[in-house]
Each structure stands twice: as C-alpha cells, then as structure tokens.
Amino acid sequence: MTIEDISLKTGLSIGHISQIERDITSPTLNAFQLLASVLGVNISYFFSDVEEKEKEGRYITRGDDRKFLTFSSGFKECQINTSAISNLQVLCSTFEPGAAVDEPYSHDGEECGMVISGVFEITIDGEPYLLKDGDGFSFPSEKPHSYRNPGESQAVVVWAMTPPSY
CA–CA separation, 94 vs 118, rounded Å? Predict the structure, then answer.
C-alpha cells in the first residue's frame, strides 16, 4: 500500500504520513487508530520492535526492554504485558503537564486504572473527574472518554483494558 493510498483512506495528508513514517513527528491517538484500521493491524503493531528473550520473553518484560509509543499530544505509553496474553492489555502512560486527548473516543471493552503520581483528569460520558496519586477509575469503554494532565508535573497512570485496544 502506498502513502497515497493510506492518505486517501485515512484522510491524513501524504506529508504528515511521511513525517510519521520517518519519525519526524508523532501522530495523535486518533491518527494511530486510523492508520491501524487502514493497515488492518492493532495499534500494538507500532510499538518498537523488541525481540523477546528466549527464556523470559514470553512471560517477563524487563524495564529496559519496554515497548513505547509517543503521541504528539504530549504523552507516551509502554505496554507492560507480554504477548503471552491476548485478552488483556496493561499500559503505563506518562503525561507531560498539559498533555491531553481532548477529543472523546469510545471502543468495545472495559478499562480500569490507577494514578501512580501527579494529577490526572479523566472525562467519562461528559463527566470530568480529577484524580491524584492512588486514585483509581473503571468504566465501560463504550462510554466516550478523554483525559488530560492539568497539573504542573508529570502524571503517571497504569491501566488495564479488555479486550486490548492496542
């Protein structure tokens, strides 16, 4: 599939797709979802290609071997689970101050999480909730949701979702 084909199917410009491909810019979460859909892959396809170690790789991921996605909206995520499980996904997200996914989105499944550090605001079905260290959340993913870091320092959130959306 050419960049032009992908552009036509996603509505993203050829130049923007080229910049993403060359790692000049990071896409938004919505752009990642569009690209994954058009390419017929899960978003996890875009995580760095890290070889799983022979003995531990199926069940253990060492901190230095984490797979990261960095989004243009100011946050990055690493997948905690290995490929040994396929019905649950666990992510650790780091949000820089002001980082946000402002456009509400929804998908099949359920999510829950906990704020490890910082301040985190999640809006679920139009209702905003301000969370801090140790606070948790859970909701059906079919509810439109968005989130942001309104604080002055990084926010770290660990969450699980089923089925995996990445």
Answer: 10
